[in-house]
Amino acid sequence: MLQQAAAGDPACREIVIRAGTALGESAALVARRLGLHHDAFETVMAGGLFRGNSRLLETTLADALHRVARRAVPVRLGCKPVVGAVLDALELAGAETGPEVRARLVASSRRFALSLRPG
User: Fold this and answer.
1) 55 and 8 in one domain?
2) d(Cα 106, Cα 82) in Å, to the nearest integer?
3) In CA terms, which of 24, 75, 97, 119 is 20 to 30 Å from 69?
């Protein structure tokens, strides 16, 4: 679908535009309800839909989000989602979660993922 949209298929483009708009509006709603819509914050784009690297999807999402939260910064997830869960657990336990800890977790998650590959 994303490849066809990028190639110019009108129906696929419309579907991707609707999806990006809906995701951006959802993120904007959350920002508004949390009172963040005037602040600078990152909105993480993660999940299967974003693995397609669709500029159309990401641009449409950003446009919809910025209508409400002009200072929001959409970013791609640069690590496995489990890293965030581990960081949350460490924070709850009162442990250090600074940049060095995060970097080590990201590196470990990549090594672990590589070790699981067949062959």
Assistant:
1) yes
2) 9
3) 97
Contact (Cβ atoms closer than 8 angstroms) between residue 40 and residue 72 = yes
Beta carbons of 43 and 72 less than 8 angstroms apart: yes
Q: On the CB side of 68, how many CA atoms lie within 13 Å of its CA?
A: 20
What's the total number of domains in the chain?
2
- Helix residue ranges, H only, the chain: 2-6, 10-33, 55-66, 81-92, 99-115
12 and 60, same structural domain?
yes
Q: How deeply is 75 buried, as exposed, middle or buried, from its count of CB atoms within 10 A (0-12, 13-18, 19+)?
A: exposed
Tell me which residue range forms the domain holding 32. 2-76
Q: What does each of the 119 residues of the chain score in pLDDT, given as a tens digit?
A: 999 999 999 999 999 999 999 999 999 999 999 999 999 999 999 888 998 999 999 999 999 999 999 999 999 988 888 888 899 999 999 998 888 998 899 888 877 755 555 55
DSSP letter, residue 51:
G
